[in-house]
Amino acid sequence: MTTKEQIEALRQELRDHNYKYYVLDEPTISDFDFDMKLKTLQELEAKHPEYYDASSPTLRVGGAVTKNFETIVHEHRMYSLSNSYSKEDLEDWEKRVQRILGDVDVAFTCELKYDGASISLTYEDGKLLRAVTRGDGFQGDDVTTNIKTIKSVPLQLKGNYPPKFDIRGEIVLPLEGFAKMNEERIANGEEPYMNPRNTASGSLKLQDSALVAERPLDCLLYGIVGENTGIESQYQMLDKAREWGFKVPTISKLCANTEEVLAFVEYWDVHRHNLPYETDGVVIKINSLRYQDELGYTAKSPRWAMAYKFKAEQVSTVLNEITYQVGRTGAITPVANLEPVLLAGTTVKRASLHNADQIEKLDIREGDTVYVEKGGEIIPKIMGVNLSQRPANSRATQYITHCPECATELLRTEGDAKHYCTNYYGCPTQITGRIQHFISRKAMDIEGMGSETVELLFKEGLIENYADLYTLTKAQVMPLERMAEKSAENLVQGVEKSKMEIPFERVLFALGIRFVGETVAKKLAKAYKSIDALMGASAEELVAVDEIGERIAQSVVEFFQNEKNQDIITRLKEYGLQFELSADKLLNQTELFKGKTFVVSGVFSKVSRNELKKMIEDNGGKVGSSVSSKTTYLVAGDNMGPSKRTKAEANKVPIISEDDFLAMLTTS
Ligand code: AMP
Ligand code: ZN
Asked: Does the beta carbon of 283 lie inside 6 Å of ligand 1?
């Protein structure tokens, strides 16, 4: 085989695997093997730039940066959809259609309405030529570089496709991936994203395509436009697109009449909550493309299609008071305290108002009757104000100017949506928040101490920072409220135990440096191996570490430059906390599980669950929180939840025992 043939063969093989993994959700090789093949291809391509191909799977990782997205005029306009909300609306539409077509029999295709950002993909000779956003419908932005990083978008088609056509779809951020992104942001002390839709559409316009590649975006297709495609109906179109390698959800139905359409709508109105992505309705299309042609378009939307919008679960209630919370990093979050109301099965008393802009935009005031909705987000959201119910003496909300906890004047920096209390060392909530973070399970995991104890200890003047925890004595703690001799003993012992047991990377996470979450702490610990080395690193050096960006680097440097922090660390060192990667840790680290993701569930007998997780990570593996087709193994202990098992079986993920796992480690 010539080098060129070898490159071609690898590309084809990787394309196939990509398709199986991201479109069909049925991988046939391990992530590790995939990565090895990808690496081989990358090396070959680097050596032989003469064989460059814009549709090579190696281009999926992104890297190209776009400063200004080029404006592209759509060859075929991208329309909106008319909306309907009831059976009557639908029947009216059917009548209008029948009037134009002259009382023929029509069939309908029902599809879900995916809630994301519209995209138009142009293919020529089976290759992705261009990806353009909807824009104003006439012209949009060329976001091809970013779209190429989305693995379910085929760069090269399969089968018998027309020479040139456009295909329309929606870029969505599936809920699981969205939740994970937010978990990480919260752990890093960052503001979580509001909802999957905005995050998906924001992703398309990121300048750095490598950042887009990191986001778990998906592309769901629904419509082909172009001449001579040989397609006769909407339903057939979906099949064809699937055949050519596109991801087209199989939840679509050919319906003979509006009763069947309504049954589909009603079914998905209930079951949509179990879908992996958000949907805000059903799109109903006249099935025959010939009839679609006859029906044509209004100024804004096709006459042959209709969106049926699900009602978001919404209630109205009175907003009693706006209060302000101070986070451990000093960020202020306004909170709406509501008259309790039942929404989607739970009683809602509070809703986040996010920031000052949000309050101003909706002109939300105390005493207002507000509409509360539960969407994809965990915390309910205020959608608007019922102005007709606004009390006569109502006054516009004045956002606070000073910290509600320490009265320090708040700061809002350019480009940041949040206000901050800068009284890092004096603001009681920030002090206790930091100590609470320090003792938390994922950080120092101090047994026998909870958030309330921290507040009590602080109030009594026994602690001012987390280093003070290590000088607490039983005699000091005993007199506290609700403290018995035994619990005081447990507390002091719990603190003592953390010195030896908690490894460097978790101590680093516990320090509560802004933007340094669990993952980043691990990366830094691995790269620098000791706190002294880390403290000596400059921002430029830090940025050179894989996945450490400028913002993190800046925050780390600032943290260690602070004298108070330096004092605290000196003290913690004296007390014997681990500020170096332990020797055995360095010794036992391998790459054995590189590219493999494990989910660990249940109770184990030989090692604890945390030890098990550590073994996975020490050997280069990843620990996932939920089972998906991307999971390599499910390690099952006793009393594992039945849903994990079902999911593993459905995704053909091998389920292994604790012994199987340990054997993998020792026999290698
Ligand atoms: P709207 O923006 O509310 O007028 O709705 C039109 C948008 O719905 C289109 O631009 C599409 O991006 C989106 N959409 C989502 N799912 C579908 C689907 N199955 N068929 C057609 N359009 C869809
Ligand atoms: Zn404050």
From this structure: yes
> CA angle at residue 45 from 39 to 49, to 5 degrees?
160
The structure's pTM equals: 0.59
Q: For 251, phi and psi rounded to 5 degrees?
A: -80, 85
CB crowding 444-453: b at 16 or more within 10 Å, else e: bbbebbeeeb
Cite the DSSP H helix spans in 355-467.
356-362, 428-439, 451-459
Question: DSSP of 306-328, one letter per residue?
Answer: EEEEPPP-EEEEEEEEEEEEE-T
Please report, for residues 71, 139, 404, the alpha-carbon distance to residue 136 in angstroms, rounded to integers and kept in the order given: 11, 6, 44
Residues lining ligand 2 (ion), CB within 5 A?
403, 405-406, 408, 421, 423, 427
Q: Catalytic residue at 151? A: no
Q: What 3-state DSSP class applies to 354? A: coil
For the cut 90, the answer to whether the pLDDT of residue 165 exceeds it is yes
User: For 254-263, what is each residue's pLDDT tens digit?
Assistant: 999 999 999 9
> Which of 170, 246, 264 most suits a substitution to test ligand 1, by most atoms within 8 Å of the C-beta?
170
Question: Could you tell me if the CB of 134 is within 6 A of ligand 1?
Answer: yes
Q: What is the pLDDT of residues 449-490, one digit of tens each?
A: 888 999 999 999 999 999 999 999 999 999 888 788 888 999
Q: How far is the CA of 103 from the centre of ligand 1 (A)?
A: 27
Atom of ligand 1 nearest to the CA of 252: 19
Alpha-carbon distance of 375 to 600, in angstroms, equals 30
pLDDT tens for each residue of 5-50? 999 999 999 999 989 888 888 888 888 888 889 989 999 998 999 9
Work out whether strand 314-326 and strand 369-373 pair parallel, antiparallel, or are unpaired: antiparallel
CA pair distance 122, 168, nearest whole angstrom:
9
How much distance in Å is there from the Cα of 507 to the middle of ligand 2?
Answer: 25
